[in-house]
Input
Amino acid sequence: IWNRATCARNAESHSRLARVRKSVHTAEQRSGSSASQKSSTRGPPRVMLVDDSAVARHKVGAVLCSLKCEVIEAKDGTEALSTLEKETPDLLILDINMPCVTSLDVLTQIRQSKRHAALPVVMLTGDADPKVVTKAISLRADDYIRKDDAATTIRDRLSEHLQTGSLIDSHVRR
Output
């Protein structure tokens, strides 16, 4: 439930994140870092969110919007792979349990693709089955987040991937 208190906390967190980004950007400019120039001219991070649950897409999508991300949604693995043929997101959030083309199949295809092999992938799960999480990590998923975590926890975890342009910079380095 998104009430006024939640929105106020989101706005406060976004303000803190913006201040951190600005101070890091200023420090990088002083040191002449070209990485900050890449991330500052790029625009908002583009995040693809893949989940067959509209409720989960809404919850995580709201978190991403509060972090000022451009969100690209897909309802399943097939749609995600099709969209990835046309789009190049900065981060992929992938539901572990999906029908048809599974998330592990999508992750395998992404890691075998020259175009998207370095794409950061965060797995989203309703149940943290250790075998599935271990398999996803072995396929080079960068992280996993539980769907039932509080929105603030999800925001904090995702913001770690987005902070100070490190997501874009790491994507370029890989």
